[in-house]
Specification:
It is a single chain. The chain is of the alpha+beta class. It has a domain of 62 residues. The protein contains three helices and two strands. Strands 1-2 form a two-stranded antiparallel ribbon. A hairpin with a 5-residue loop joins strand 1 and strand 2. 6% of the residues are buried. This is Reverse transcriptase Ty1/copia-type domain-containing protein. InterPro entries: RVT_2.
């Protein structure tokens, strides 16, 4: 859609002369040029991999992996602590699942926390996967 403005031929210019309709038409501009994308491949920063290696504590990704590690007793204790905390805080109550409804799935998230004295604390969190 192009717009054009045509002045009335009876209107006067600032000089005092009448102008013709052709000289007062605004010409449509050319369409905007397409933006071009770089064709260079994305190369991740090499320092990122170094950072990952330095900060990786070897934490388990899932319950099965946590049970198979040498620290499985520490992870088990952390999961029991989390469950006890959820129960004591009355986070939920067990009820019968209504017909036609689906229960939300959950998973365990494991982290090794460093204490102020330099010791390690094994922390487990039970989280709901609400995206399902």
């Amino acid at each position: 859609m192009t717009k054009s403005i045509i002045r009335n031929p009876q209107q006067e210019d600032s000089v005092g002369q009448t102008s013709s309709p052709q000289s007062n038409m605004i010409q449509p501009s050319s369409p905007a040029p397409e933006l071009r994308r770089s064709t260079r491949p994305h190369v991740p920063n090499k320092r990122y991999m170094d950072y990952l290696l330095l900060t990786d504590e070897g934490e388990s990704e899932c319950y099965d992996e946590a049970c198979l590690t040498s620290d499985s007793s520490k992870w088990d204790l952390a999961m029991k602590d989390e469950m006890q905390s959820l129960i004591s805080n009355q986070t939920w109550e067990l009820v019968e699942l209504p017909k036609g409804k689906k229960a939300l799935h959950n998973k365990w998230v494991y982290r090794v926390k460093k204490e102020h004295d330099g010791s390690k604390r094994y922390k487990a969190r039970l989280v709901v996967k609400g995206f399902q």
